[in-house]
Design brief:
eleven-stranded mixed β-sheet, 420 residues, 19 strands, six-stranded parallel β-sheet, alpha/beta
Length: 420
């Protein structure tokens, strides 16, 4: 009998419980072993729940799980950072394997958790922390062994992808699309983490840390969200033959890494443009494999719980040992130095000359103006991301309404239709 301790019984936790207790569960058939969720940590034992639990399963004391020698695997699905970090560390110190779906704690403490898992010779798996039901962590670990990964990028947040899809396909404004996402359960009451890009930043930090064999500081990743994109922007993007996506990107060249989360204009016929609604896609580029893409549901109870259960299977079967990795790279984080692209800039301003002066002062002197009707809309020639970051900061300082969107390299802007 393999005993599991579950930290949390929310959406994902209840999904894990349901899968492991399903009559269709093939674990015993595949592994020759039964699995039991012995204890579940909750905040309130008396709360009404949809899942039926044996008496005595629930506890409010984490040490009923962490210090129980009969529990072999701790599954952390409670969220948050500080308590989750402490419980995961305690689990390792008490010779337990750990599975987590918590992107925030993994992004911040991955190096420490890897050290402890190695020290105590226990598994640490976190497939569900990135892109929900899409299997990306395990294949990435495997490919890093024989590939130098030069790029990883993806649509990693279903909420923002749903909002942008509705803006592009149905003509909704940002506020309308956000409200709809909230009504359908895609967005939280406070959508800040999603629409400002913080959720994607955490996921990108995890992927980049594995891809480049080096802990990437989540707080060093430059991040801008989609709140400033409006219906005028969408119409301009369509004139460019483009679609907009919130994308996490990380580039590696030599021993330097640059990472960012920002809106990206992609060709409307590209694979990324076809990813609609709450779906996700992740792309990696290696020197041997070329480009690999992974597509699927990026969130939700069943997809995420499925990823957690797959990790549990890998621990029980011992497969986790073959996917073990140690971060021993010598990468230097290079701010935004590796991003040098064209940018879309829209500024709602009555003082166009002041905006053009800011561009000139920051050495952005080559650009194509798309419109000067109420808004200044232009496309820069290739320029550094750092310069555009300075422009963004200066426009915020003077209180302008604006949007800045990076253009994908293969987007053709040579035949711009200019409407002065």
């Amino acid at each position: 009998m393999i005993n599991v301790g579950l930290l949390g019984l929310g959406t994902v936790g209840s999904g894990v419980y349901e899968i492991l207790n399903s009559e269709n569960n093939n674990f015993k058939k595949l592994l020759g072993k039964d699995i039991s969720i012995k204890k579940i940590l909750v905040n309130d034992i008396n709360k009404k729940r949809q899942v039926k639990l044996p008496k005595g399963t629930l506890t409010t004391n984490p040490y009923d799980i962490l210090h129980d020698d009969d529990i072999h695997i701790v599954v952390e699905v409670m969220g948050g950072i500080d308590r989750a970090h402490d419980y995961i560390c305690e689990a390792f110190k008490n010779n337990k394997h750990v599975v987590t779906a918590n992107k925030a704690v993994v992004a911040k403490h991955m190096d420490e958790f890897l050290f402890l898992s190695n020290k105590y010779d226990k598994g640490f798996l976190f497939e569900a922390s990135v892109a929900g039901g899409i299997p990306i962590i395990k294949p990435l670990k495997q490919n890093v062994r024989i590939n130098n990964i030069s790029e990883i990028k993806g649509i990693l947040n279903g909420t923002t992808n749903f909002i942008l899809t509705k803006m592009i396909d149905d003509g909704l404004g940002f506020d309308e699309a956000l409200k709809l996402a909230q009504e359908l359960g895609y967005a939280e009451a406070d959508p800040t983490d999603d629409v400002e890009g913080f959720d994607v930043k955490r996921k990108l930090a995890i992927l980049a840390s594995i891809a480049f064999n080096n802990q990437i500081d989540v707080d060093s990743i430059k991040c801008s969200g989609i709140r400033n994109i409006n219906t005028l922007d969408i119409s301009m993007f369509k004139k460019l033959g483009a679609s907009v996506k919130l994308v996490g990107s990380a580039l590696c060249s030599g021993n330097k890494v640059s990472a960012s989360v920002e809106p990206l204009l992609v060709n409307k016929n590209s694979t990324m443009a076809t990813v609609k609604g709450a779906f996700n896609i992740v792309s990696i580029v290696g020197d041997t494999i070329g480009q690999l893409q992974f597509y699927g549901q990026g969130a939700g109870k069943k997809p995420t719980a499925n990823a957690v259960v797959c990790d549990i299977y890998d621990i029980i079967s011992g497969q986790y040992k073959t996917d073990h990795f140690i971060q021993n790279g010598h990468i230097k984080e290079a701010d935004l130095d590796l991003f040098n692209c064209k940018y879309y800039l829209r500024v709602n301003t009555k003082n166009i000359s002041r905006v053009l002066g800011l561009l000139d002062k920051n050495h952005i002197q080559k650009f194509t103006i798309m419109s000067m009707k109420n808004n200044l809309v232009l496309i820069t020639d290739n320029t550094s991301a750092k310069s555009m970051e300075i422009i963004s900061s200066q426009l915020k300082t003077i209180g302008e309404d604006f949007s800045i969107v990076r253009l994908e390299d293969d987007l053709n802007t040579n035949a711009l239709c200019i409407g002065i």
